[in-house]
Specification:
With 172 residues, the chain is an all-alpha fold. 74% of the residues lie in helices and 0% in strands.
Length: 172
């Protein structure tokens, strides 16, 4: 329960960072997507269920401020958290390239699905322009921010997880 509340506080903190500092740290009109970092990291660190839980609430908060279609981002973030959770227990927490690769793929898929929902269905067919002008710069910028935030989030994650001692005592 302590971890769930801590995850919600972390989601709200990242949401507030994205809403308040998003315009300040924007480069050329491109803002990093801070909320997509959380489902990838928690899915990678704790499995499919945690990735889906964090993805739902991160997507919910993203939908509150940024999205015109309520629920779309929550659904996409749930899938991203689930796909990240597939790699749970296959790699160690110190691996940084796997979560960054998952973040790259997840952010690109989210950007492309946003293009499909917002522009392609409205007969704006220049997909390569949208990919090169908006999606790829956002993916790169989000990856750079994720490199900076990876260690602090995993540090907080260790302190929010009191179940490690219980797991050891249950196995013995």
């Amino acid at each position: 329960m302590k971890r769930k509340i801590g995850e919600l506080i972390l989601i709200i903190f990242f949401y507030l960072l994205q809403v308040t500092l998003g315009r300040v740290i924007a480069i050329g009109g491109i803002k990093p997507n801070l909320l997509i970092i959380l489902p990838v990291l928690f899915g990678f660190l704790y499995g499919k269920n945690e990735g889906m839980y964090v993805g739902f609430f991160a997507g919910f908060f993203y939908d509150l401020f940024f999205s015109g279609l309520f629920g779309f981002t929550s659904l996409v973030f749930v899938y991203i958290g689930y796909c990240s959770g597939i790699f749970y227990q296959k790699y160690e927490e110190t691996e940084m390239l796997i979560p960054l690769g998952l973040l790259l793929a997840g952010d690109f898929c989210f950007g492309f699905l946003s293009y499909v929902g917002n522009f392609l269905l409205h007969n704006r067919l220049n997909a390569m322009y949208y990919i090169s002008r908006f999606i790829l710069p956002e993916v790169v910028y989000t990856l750079l921010i994720a490199v900076i935030l990876y260690k602090p989030v995993t540090f907080l994650n260790k302190h929010l997880n009191p179940t490690d001692k219980r797991r050891i005592s249950k196995v013995d």
